[in-house]
Amino acid sequence: MQPLLLVSEESQILLRILNGSFQTLDVIKDRIVHAFVDLFCSKANLDVIGMRQDNVVQSVNRVEKRSEDWSSKENDSNGEGDSTAGFNVLDAMLKHSLDRLKSMRERISSAEGIDNCTLGINFDKDAYVIRAMCLDGKLGEALSLWCNMIQNSFVPHIITHNYLINGLCKKGELEKAEWIVRGMLCRGPSPSCATYNSLIRGYCLMNDFDKALKTFSTMANHGIMPNRVTCNILVHALCKKGLVEEAKKLFHKLLSKNYEGGSPDLITSTIMMDGCFKNGDTDQALAFWERMLKEGTKVDKVSYNVVVHGFCMSHDVGTAYKYCCEMLKLGFVPDVYSYNTIVGALCKKGMTRDACYIYDVMRRMGVIPDQITYKMIIQALCINREIDRANCFLDYMLENSIIPEPLVWNVIIDGYGRCGDIQKASYIRDKMVANGVLPNIYTYNALIYTQIKLGNLFAAQSLEKEMLLYGLHPDSVTYNLLIGGACNLGLIHLALKLHDEMLRKGCQPDVITYTELLKWYCLQGMMTEADKLLGKLLGSGLAVDHVPFLVLMKRYCRRREFNKVFDLYQKWLVTMPR
């Protein structure tokens, strides 16, 4: 009996342990459920949370059910077995549950890692998109995407910030650029020298030098040392504004502080030299040039172009030639800018033959003339009344697939018009249209002038009507030409009709309009109407010159009405600008 009692006691102890284990499993189950609920409450995918929570509960329930089945079998077996088998079952149950938890934890960690990795890749892609948008000028979309990244607690790299700030500054949206910089100072990344350079350049473009210099002075407060680019931006802006003395002070400050551990570079010296040339200070410009050569600075083509342009501005074309030859000796082939500078200087002096020679040299040297080259030569030839030669250069342009702008066509049309050659003027207008360049108001005014000069008033009026087909509206020059032509032909009623039409269409008469009408009244001896028209002119608020007074004074002198002449002279003195 004693062994039987011992087995019974061991069975009772095992059943108690198992019962306690089942209660422990219930507690574990509840704690696991609560822990996972707390863990996933902050996650976005609640369906996954519910599914995984059900899996845990079902797993524990299955273990619990197997344990109950085992327990019932043990009770039915009338106490057969030993304590070792019971503990093995308990170990298996616990091990199974822990393995399930481990695998779930690994899956959760893997999913979170993939999500974070994907999120990081997406935001890196957004940063590259921001840079591309800034280069394309799509600043609104870039700024919106940047704000989205900031709201998702992802701070883009400093390069991305600099792209955005540079784009905003170029577009003149400096307030937004400042706002981004303030945000960088608060949350990062810290602004770099390039960041402040973009701001300074933006202020200089907007002619706000006070803010540019203030930004320059505050760089040191944030631990950023200005570099050469910073100083070059400020020096160039000051020289462009004509503030050469202030630019010199900043230049010498650059020398004293030795930014980046050296003397001013080629760009800074070239900017200063260009500013001095444009300010008329040739000696100071040459001093900068000599300093560059003395310090062993390797000058380039741009530096020589500045020197050539400076001497051409001072009308010293001979010295400009000298530096061009020096360029060639040093191996610098003059570019189109170099040649255009000399061509422009020669054209201004009326030396069209020399300008054409330089054009030939350009082509032999392999430098292709551009729109500016042809424009300067054609204008100079038309001023010298060499219209046929100018027309040849127009043909050269077309042969080289360069479509001239309307100004070039109009200059030649006007040149032929002033020579009274209406056929060639009309031919150039037709060629202009054939090459896809639409005539403008200046084209038609030149043609109308030619017809008026030839006495073809009705042909001029036909051109006025033709303007409407191109969507053009006559201006004051058009009406003045037509009114003057009508007055010259003695058609005062037509002249007055054109004057009324001018007012109806919202085109205000000017001094020339009134002067043309005054001439006709004086020629017809209608002095009362002429005096009324002069009074109307003086009361119009227009800036009146001496011509209307001289027209009336001459007529009164012929009529020997000297009192009237003296009164007109007194009125003239009153209206003269002081």
Task: Give the SSE map.
Blueprint: H1 2-40, H2 46-76, H3 83-136, H4 139-151, H5 158-171, H6 174-187, H7 193-205, H8 209-218, H9 228-240, H10 244-257, H11 266-278, H12 282-294, H13 301-313, H14 317-329, H15 336-348, H16 352-364, H17 371-383, H18 387-399, H19 406-418, H20 422-434, H21 441-453, H22 457-469, H23 476-488, H24 492-504, H25 511-523, H26 527-538, H27 547-558, H28 562-575
Task: Describe this entry's structure for a reader.
This protein is 78% helix and 0% strand. The protein is mostly helical and 578 residues long.
Number of beta strands: 0
Poorly predicted regions: 1-18, 20-25, 32-53, 66-81, 110-121
Number of separate helices: 28
Order of helices and strands: HHHHHHHHHHHHHHHHHHHHHHHHHHHH
Our measurement of the CA-to-CA distance between the termini, rounded to an integer number of angstroms, reads 144 Å
Strand portion, in percent? under 5%
Helix proportion range: over 70%
Largest sheet: none
Identify the quaternary structure here. Answer: single chain
Overall radius of gyration: 45 Å
- Shape label: elongated
Structural category? mainly alpha
The average pLDDT score comes to 79
List keywords for this structure.
578 residues, mainly alpha
Offer a quick outline of the entry.
With 578 residues, the protein is mainly alpha-helical. It has helices spanning 2-40, 46-76, 83-136, 139-151, 158-171, 174-187, 193-205, 209-218, 228-240, 244-257, 266-278, 282-294, 301-313, 317-329, 336-348, 352-364, 371-383, 387-399, 406-418, 422-434, 441-453, 457-469, 476-488, 492-504, 511-523, 527-538, 547-558, 562-575. Helix 7 packs parallel to helix 9 (228-240) and helix 10 runs antiparallel to helix 11.
